[in-house]
Amino acid sequence: MLFSIFLFFLFALSIILLYYSSTLFIHGAAKMAQYFHLPEITIGLTFVAIGTSTPEFIVSVLASLQHHHNLAFSNSLGSNIFNTSFLLGIAALILPISVKKEYVYRDGLFLWSMTGIATLLAFAFATKEATYTFFFEGVFFLASLIIYLYYLIKTSKQTILNSLDPEEWQTKPTKSLFVYVFYFTLGLSCLIGSSYLLIYSVKNIAYTFGISNWIIGLTITAFGTSAPELFSMLVCSLKKQNEMAFGMILGSNLFNLLAVFGFISTFQMKTGLTPALLPTLWLLWGVTTVTLIFMRIHWKLTRIKGFVLLSIGILYWSYSFI
After folding, report:
1. CB–CB of 43/244 below 8 Å?
2. How far is CA 113 from each of CA 80, 84, 181, 280, rounded to the nearest angstrom?
3. 73-77, 103-107, 156-160, 191-195: lowest mean pLDDT where?
4. φ/ψ (deg, to 5) at 98
């Protein structure tokens, strides 16, 4: 009884810490974007996305090293479904998100393509015996992520440079870069720490109800490791920094898919995209497709579209627990 009360106390404490640390984290990220004259979506797709995806990466890699490969991959895929359905849905419900054409065609289609390739590889090639295919899959995903990030930063920097006049280019925030990096790093550290506190409390509560590791990976652990994205997205929406929120969710999904699958498949080589992952991969690809179609229609995620995405997430979680 006392332990259960303690777990609920830890849960409440983690929620409070997540909110305040995400506020500091997003403030630092926004000022860094201003300092380097980068679009907010580029910061969201890179520094913010990679930072908030760190819990998924650590949890998945540690689970794989302990030979819990299903938990490792299901956590990553579950987080992506959560990000696309819940987070984008909630963000659009709070404030409709206008998206630029280039973001849909460049970033959205790249995510859709990589998700589709992962699904088709699991469907067509991967078997438990063909370990050599796992290695080449991993190298392909890691190389794709590196090339994409390089292209993204290079083109974004050049676009901003061409759009600003010389006086604007010299304008920087009032505080030093060190201060904003400190805000960003401290906020991220607290975000990750509080997300692990959230996972610990919720997972132990779930274990008392006899929930399996697979379901915990797809739902509870995925929710816990997505907590940094959730609270960061809420702060972005409340501050009307929707470009950063949109970029963070797309970038987080890319990092979860390419970095997690790439790293584990390359360095473990005994596991990879197996047919067991197909139902979740098909669902993720489908949700990604629906999201891209929604963004293409009038280049805006309206509240109605956000409600549809959120409903998909609720149905997915409900089905996972049946």
Report:
1. yes
2. 15, 15, 33, 16
3. 156-160
4. -90, 130
Length of the chain measured in residues: 322
Residue 139 scores a pLDDT above 80: yes
Residue 48 pLDDT: 78
Closest CA to 291 of 103, 88, 97, 100: 88
Q: State residue 257's pLDDT score.
A: 85
What CA–CA distance (Å, rounded) separates 228 from 19? 9
Which residues have C-beta within 8 Å of that of residue 129, sequence separation ≥ 6?
none
Q: Which residues contact 115 (CB under 8 A, 6 or more apart)?
A: 80, 253, 257, 281, 284, 285, 288
Closest of 162, 148, 163, 153 to residue 107, by C-alpha: 148
CA-nearest of 207, 225, 297, 181 to 52 is 225
CB 21 within 8 A of CB 230: no
Residues 108/246, Cβ–Cβ less than 8 Å: no
Mean pLDDT, all residues of the chain? 76
Give the Å distances, CA to CA, from 83 to 77, 141, 274, 312. Answer: 10, 20, 23, 12
